[in-house]
Amino acid sequence: MNPQQNNNPYPPVPGTPPFRGAPPQSPLSQLPRPPKVHTGHSWIYIVVIVILVLSLIGTFVWTGSIIGQRDKYKNDVDKLVAEAVAVAKKEADYVPGPLSGTAFALRLEIVQQNYDLVLSTYKGNVTKGTLVASPYKLPKVPEVLGMRLDGELSQNVKSGSAVILPLRDKTIKIYTESQSFVPDFNNIILPNMIFQP
Rounded to two decimals, what is the model's pTM? Predict the structure, then answer.
């Protein structure tokens, strides 16, 4: 390179003296440099963006399914009610009634008769000796004295246990209709039964 050659990268402008020395600095070179971008953590940003996009897609799919179900119930309500009624009628055929002869694990009745009248219905079986009567108080309601009956509670219930308790002008009857349920009746039901006398 020729030492007298101008280092100016720009061609000379006519009418100006040739440039000698260091080129003037651009005003942009005096601005602070931008901070270095660390590229090592860019994968974290990518993962976060992917998760957000997948969440957004999942939300759209879920919303679409909810709208579809809503429309199903909105437009097909009569058909759905008819199907539910048919299922309920079918299930009702499988649930035995109290007069079916099926032994229930637990029955609870609030009888619209006074205590003495309800107890008198069991007097015949107690006299015959097929039913044993003894005074009874519930552990959680000790202020109420009732009667415990064990044995033949009725013609259909040959071996059961019952507790008869006064409740103001009514009577509570709680009983099990099979000896196989008596341990649960004695250990779970009676110790936890509570009512307001």
Answer: 0.51
